[in-house]
Design a protein that fits this description.
This protein has helices at 31-40, 73-84, 88-101, 110-115, 132-142, 146-149, 161-172, 226-235, 267-278, 282-294, 303-311, 325-336, 352-362, 488-493, 496-510; strands at residues 6-13, 20-27, 51-57, 67-68, 107-108, 125-127, 174-177, 180-183, 210-214, 218-222, 246-251, 318-319, 365-367, 370-372, 403-408, 411-416, 430-436, 442-446, 453-459, 471-472, 480-486. The chain has 516 residues and is α+β, with helices and mostly antiparallel strands. Strand 15 and strand 16 (411-416) form a beta hairpin. The protein is elongated, with a radius of gyration of 32 Å.
């Protein structure tokens, strides 16, 4: 495990709400550690703009005070890896050449900082030389200056060592660093990094959910094929991999640690869990972490519980919009209030006690990834203020209300201007929210829209939003109102496939088209 020598604070803004998310990240970091940090600040695109501030750097403390020119997480991580891999002497040389060649009071280029980590072997460094006077004595004792060497030995005592050291330092472009003298004036950083593509120093790491160290000399990544497991066992002269000795455990999920892995008897179950994780979409990975974070208070999460959580992820709801329970409390109120209600009235509400009570009633939990529901529960279901949820709650009955019929994303759907909560939703229908647009009526369709809610659509089949988590409309794909209304019951009983075929047939007859 590489030494963590740098700490970042990452932040990103949610453009819809204007809300900022923050997370700390220790560098150098593995890919899964960076991914986890980005998930906590709700960033799905690795290339998205992220504010990155250094507030600890063991090797170059000046980095915390300077202004870096738009650094990326990958650049800072690459720099941290380079610095962490240096021997102590080279770290001192690096500090010296940066302080001499990089203006830390101006906008500092990551390109310069990274390139300055190369070709340091040729830079001279002297130990136990931390002042001009010590440098003067060092030069005199080692005959390092031609002019001084020409002075008769019996006259050397007349020399001002401090002045001799100062002149040598100025000629060398030398720098004192932690009791060492570095001849930094002749150093010129090579052009290894062009400012666009980071140097490739090692092959990309193979993705893994977990890694097991076998007998101190081999790592095996999970998920692993049966052939790979058998080969590993054979190399260690045992019949099955369960007979091998595990001496190390690494996880791509911070909530699953070595304490969850008892011994190699858990190998098959962890391999199965890794296989499930391999096929999780990005949104599923975040939800899985949120579920595990909510269960962190449990005394021990064994692999059977972890598998059970992974296999039932679709029974949980996650709201990534909220940082904490107070924000969620206001979003919960906004979800149930009339769409005409001005949400700014909620901005000044202090709701610490009530927000905690709400999460208790819902069985939900606040995590770094958002608010996660209890299994089989909705985050926005109606719950009583007091007591256990044992009585039935009255909900608006949509059965007899006629709603407008629209076509959206190739499906026939029902549309309403208001919000629809889970209790109102007839069985067999799926609800999604529309967001109001600036140039067109609706800009997108999403699982939940809290800000700029433009309406709700009910569909017979669920939508797969993929990695993005929403669909953006343009003029051609925006919902098309079909000009008639149906009740949800009538909608469920109508076969729109047959209706579309009849409409196509009529169009062909009207146009004189031949029918076969």
């Amino acid at each position: 495990m590489e030494e963590k020598i740098m700490t970042l604070e990452l932040s990103a803004e949610d453009p819809a709400s204007g809300r900022y998310y923050y997370v700390s990240l220790e560098l150098p970091a593995e890919g899964y550690e960076i991914l986890d940090a980005l998930q906590k600040i709700r960033v799905n695109d690795r290339d998205a703009y992220i504010e990155a501030d250094v507030y600890r750097c063991k090797i170059l403390p000046e980095l915390c005070e300077c202004r870096l020119d738009s650094p990326t997480v990958d650049e800072l991580n690459f720099l941290a890896k380079r610095l962490a891999g240096m021997p102590e002497e080279q770290r001192l040389i690096y500090r010296a050449v940066v302080s001499r060649n990089v203006d830390m009071d101006d906008l500092v280029s990551m390109k310069d900082l990274i390139n300055s980590t190369y070709d340091l072997d040729g830079v001279m460094i002297a130990s136990n030389v931390g002042t001009d006077e010590q440098l003067g004595a060092f030069i005199i004792e080692n005959d390092l200056n031609e002019d001084i060497s020409a002075i008769p030995e019996q006259s050397l005592y007349l020399l001002n060592k401090k002045e001799a050291g100062r002149m040598q330092r100025e000629n060398d472009g030398g720098v004192f660093v932690d009791g060492h003298y570095v001849v930094a004036g002749d150093y010129k950083a090579p052009e290894i990094y062009d400012g666009k593509t980071l140097p490739s120093e090692e092959p990309p790491a193979e993705w893994f959910a977990f890694r097991l160290q076998i007998a101190d000399d081999e790592w095996i990544n999970l998920p692993a094929t049966a052939e790979k497991a058998a080969e590993t066992a054979h190399r260690h002269h045992v019949n099955t991999i369960e007979e091998c000795e595990c001496t190390g455990f690494e996880s791509s999920v911070p909530q699953i640690t070595e304490s969850n892995f008892r011994d190699m008897e858990d190998f098959k179950d962890f391999n199965r869990l890794a296989q499930i994780m391999l096929h999780m979409p990005p949104a599923g990975q975040v939800k899985f972490k949120a579920v595990l974070a909510a269960e962190a208070h449990l005394p021990h999460l064994n692999v059977q519980r972890l598998l059970d959580d992974a296999e039932h992820l679709d029974e949980y709801e996650l709201s990534v919009y909220s940082n904490n329970k107070e924000q969620f409390f206001k979003e919960y109120l906004q979800m149930h209030l009339d769409t005409k209600f001005d949400a700014k009235w909620l901005s000044s509400i202090a709701a610490w006690d009530d927000s905690k009570r709400l999460l208790d009633r819902l069985g939900a939990a606040a995590t770094d990834y958002g608010i996660i529901s209890a299994r089989g529960r909705s985050l926005f279901e109606l719950v009583p203020y007091d007591g256990q949820q044992t009585r039935e709650l009255a909900a608006k009955n949509l059965t007899d209300e006629k709603l407008e019929v629209v076509e959206v994303l190739g499906q026939t759907a029902l549309f309403t201007n208001g919000r629809v909560v889970e209790q109102e939703l007839p069985e067999g229908l799926y609800k999604y929210d529309l967001r109001e647009g600036e140039d067109i009526c609706f800009s997108s369709i999403e699982p939940h829209v809290l800000v700029n809610h433009g309406g709700t659509v009910l569909l017979k089949a669920p939508l797969d939003f993929g990695d993005a988590g929403y669909f953006v409309f343009d003029d051609d794909s925006s919902p098309n109102f079909l000009g008639y209304r149906l009740t949800p019951k009538e909608f469920m009983e109508t076969d729109f496939t047959e209706q579309e075929e009849e409409d196509t047939s009529i169009e062909q007859e009207d146009s004189g088209g031949m029918q076969l």
